[in-house]
């Protein structure tokens, strides 16, 4: 690491440093600490003795991008990319040499063409969401925990689209037992990774990981295997995700244990990150009522009937697009660094030669909120994503002042929330489809505001203060609904 001696550490003394880093992972505050270090020390910081963090736009290509001739891929960090309880790797954490073989059968299932065929199913769940919220809003029981409704919707959609069976969360307005295992699984993953850093004391540290976290991870895996097996035995001509995969998979594709491990990832990735994004976006809008009303106006003036709100039609809504871009920037659903390792011979990142086997990553939360990359980084300003001659490019009364030149130097290229390169997100079309349909139909039908606190402690959710274990751990988000139709 001699060439990196001028890279500042998050903490100076090495023992304190290690403990600090592990404690940040285990306590769910690594994301906040990483941002603090970058704010203090600049665009490259040392997070742990062998771990560097970068927040400049070129780090995306240098760490995650397709390789140029003569450069090896920066591989997934095995501390985080562990096999499933059945010993197999899933698509998301498999080794680079296995990736193309495992990825190919999934590609058609996530294409735009497949998505068009799936729109009716997604719309069906969004209609059920509207019915449930309407019945709450019109029955006097108007304060809801909106993150639950989002989570139920995305979980039901991935159950149905992925495996041909919904989980009936929306129908019953209740969590399926599985959802509680999902977050337990993530916490277990983060805690296990934090102890994996120190293999020589792994066994002793392993004892500190709560039994409930291990059990949640095992239960999530067992249920996913069961779901995948049931889907494989189901005779149906529905065009769900597994129909494409099963049609293409052969002896050169995924093994059964790999398919089961990937089923577990699809359920987790396909539900948690999209509902997190919807929760974060709604929270940002409610905390900025003028932006909320600007988006509501765009949605209501664009559609005469709710049935006109289709994926094709939503493509035309410029403010909706800008709102999601800004919400991705302010509250990225994957806020931590996505961990990679520099190949043994070393390589260059952001103009610096980095020695082989160094752990590296770009933490989205720290990068997107840095003054190195954005002006007014903590403000929710969808306008920064609009052309300055757009009629919507007008500040709200509570915005910091801006004009046509204000955002010209923003590093917008630093925000690819689904990552880049060969391991980027396969589900981004599906995620965008769900986000657009849910938020636009919600705003078409109802007004939202924070409930009165009636003198009690202010319990309005501040999304970014929540803990993270790879994804955000979501706290209650109470919203008051007014049905306007
Ligand atoms: C807002 C929603 C979402 C965000 C922000 C997101 C973000 C990401 C990111 C950053 C990665 C790269 C991870 C890495 O390199 O280690 C990834 C990979 C992946 N995501 Fe998503 N995701 C979202 C929704 C979805 C959905 C809806 C699905 C599927 C139903 C999905 C399935 C996957 C899979 C299977 C991978 C691994 C791809 C591979 O390695 O080839 N994601 N996602």
From TrEMBL:
Keywords: Heme, Iron, Membrane, Metal-binding, Monooxygenase, Oxidoreductase, Transmembrane, Transmembrane helix. The chain crosses the membrane at residues 178-201. It holds the Pfam family p450. One of its GO terms (molecular function) is heme binding. Its cofactor is heme. It comes from the Eukaryota. Heme binds at residue 425. Gene3D superfamilies: Cytochrome P450. Belongs to the cytochrome P450 family. This is Cytochrome P450 monooxygenase. It comes from Hymenoscyphus albidus.
């Amino acid at each position: 690491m001699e060439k990196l001696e001028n890279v500042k550490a998050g903490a100076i003394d090495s023992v304190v440093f290690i403990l600090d880093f592990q404690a940040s992972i285990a306590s769910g505050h690594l994301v906040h600490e990483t941002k603090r270090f970058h704010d203090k020390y600049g665009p490259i910081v040392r997070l742990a003795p062998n771990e560097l963090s970068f927040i400049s736009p070129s780090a995306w290509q240098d760490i995650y991008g397709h390789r140029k001739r003569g450069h090896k891929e920066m591989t997934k960090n095995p501390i985080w990319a562990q096999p499933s309880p059945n010993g197999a790797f899933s698509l998301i954490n498999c080794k680079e040499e296995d990736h193309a073989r495992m990825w190919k059968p999934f590609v058609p299932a996530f294409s735009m063409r497949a998505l068009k065929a799936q729109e009716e199913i997604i719309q069906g769940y969004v209609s059920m969401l509207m019915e449930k919220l309407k019945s709450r809003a019109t029955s006097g029981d108007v304060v809801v925990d909106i993150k639950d409704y989002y989570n139920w919707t995305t979980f039901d959609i991935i159950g149905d689209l992925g495996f041909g069976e919904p989980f009936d969360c929306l129908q019953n307005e209740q969590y399926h037992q599985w959802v509680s295992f999902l977050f337990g699984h993530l916490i277990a993953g983060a805690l296990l990774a934090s102890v994996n850093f120190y293999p020589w004391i792994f066994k002793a540290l392993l004892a500190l990981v709560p039994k409930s976290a291990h059990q949640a991870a095992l239960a999530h895996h067992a249920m996913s295997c069961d779901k995948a097996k049931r889907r494989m035995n189901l005779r149906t001509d529905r065009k769900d995700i597994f129909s494409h995969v099963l049609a293409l998979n052969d002896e050169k594709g995924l093994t059964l244990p790999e398919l089961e491990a990937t089923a577990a990832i699809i359920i987790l990735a396909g539900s948690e990150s999209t509902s997190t994004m919807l929760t974060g976006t709604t929270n940002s809008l409610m905390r900025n009522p003028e932006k909320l009303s600007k988006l509501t106006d765009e949605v209501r003036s664009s559609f005469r009937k709710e049935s006109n709100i289709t994926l094709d039609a939503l493509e035309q809504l410029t403010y909706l697009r800008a709102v999601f871009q800004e919400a991705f920037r302010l509250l990225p659903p994957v806020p931590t660094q996505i961990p990679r390792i520099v190949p043994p011979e070393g390589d260059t990142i952001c103009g610096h030669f980095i020695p082989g086997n160094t752990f590296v990553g770009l933490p989205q939360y720290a990068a997107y909120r840095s003054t190195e990359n954005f002006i007014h980084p903590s403000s929710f300003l969808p306008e920064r994503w609009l052309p300055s001659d757009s009629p919507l490019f007008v500040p709200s009364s509570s915005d910091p002042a801006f004009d046509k030149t204000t955002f010209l130097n923003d590093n917008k290229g630093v925000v690819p929330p689904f990552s880049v390169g060969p391991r980027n997100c396969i589900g981004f079309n599906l995620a965008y489809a769900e986000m657009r349909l849910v938020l636009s139909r919600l705003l078409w039908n109802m007004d939202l505001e924070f409930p009165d606190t009636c003198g009690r402690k202010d319990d309005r959710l501040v999304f970014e203060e929540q803990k993270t274990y790879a994804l955000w751990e979501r706290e209650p988000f109470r919203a008051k609904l007014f049905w306007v139709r």
